[in-house]
Amino acid sequence: MKIFVRIVGIIAVLVVIGLGWAANYFYNYAVVPSEKDFLDNDTPGTSKVETKEVDRWYSDENLRTRWSLESQDGLNLSAIYIPAEKNNHKTAIIAHGYMGNAETMGEYAEMYHDFGYNVLVPDARGHGQSEGDYIGFGWHERKDYLQWIDRVLAENGADETITLYGLSMGAATVMMVSGEDLPKNVVSIIEDCGYSSINAELQYQLKDLFNLPAFPLIPVTSLMTKVRAGYFFGEGDATKQLAKNTRPMLFIHGDADKFVPFSMLDTVYEATDAPKEKWVVPGAGHAKAYSKNKKLYQEKVQTFLQKYE
What we know:
Elements (H helix, E strand, L loop, with lengths): L1 H29 L21 H7 L6 E6 L5 E7 L7 E6 L10 H9 L3 E5 L18 H16 L4 E7 L1 H10 L7 E7 L5 H13 L6 H13 L8 H5 L6 E6 L9 H7 L5 E6 L7 H4 L1 H15 L1
Parallel strand pairs: 3-4, 3-5, 5-6, 6-7, 7-8
Antiparallel strand pairs: 1-2, 2-4
Helix pairs in contact: 1-7, 2-3, 4-5
């Protein structure tokens, strides 16, 4: 009997050690900012894929300035700001994708600028020129975007109207922002291919990349993330935030998306009772809806924005 108990104890210790190693590996693989071998090198919002003309415009230091602020937890955050050619008292705040940065959002910045908006494109914490040693998947970033909203109002005046736009992880970010206590200045939100929750997206990726079930790795890694980054995966649920949302929203998703599954579109769309529209882009992969048909994308976005300006 003693031998049996010892064997069970040894096995239990080995299981705990193995789970700890696996959780640490997955935490570094998914949560720590670094080069990711599973990312598509030409995904907008993650890599810089715009044309030379857009790049030339977006990188013009005579047009843009760098804004910075300190997050609530003491990180120095950075953003690119480009004023509109004519002051229309409206600003678009644009959120980039997973392991992207503000520099990867030139095409989207140009689109909003052409619509007559001031454009603010933050580097999410742990990305670009912003400090941070972990990725919040939109959950901690939502608080940072509340500060960016306040910064826009402080710089551009209390009458400024604001629209939020997000792509991929940025889309999840603006959906998570939607459930916060927003000033009346935020008049609309557009999300393109955002996931329904951190848990759901990581479970999908774990199955897709490693053919592994969610249990026990996701819960154990979530616990490690709580210890090291200050949040459980279960906290970052866009659907719960959308349930509190009152802002008009446009939901966009390509039906060929294999990174954030297309099925999540209906999940997030049904989560809010606010005024809403849904646009499915046939044949578009992850974050490729804009490149699939730029003219139509611009028309859809502008038509939606004009309803709530």
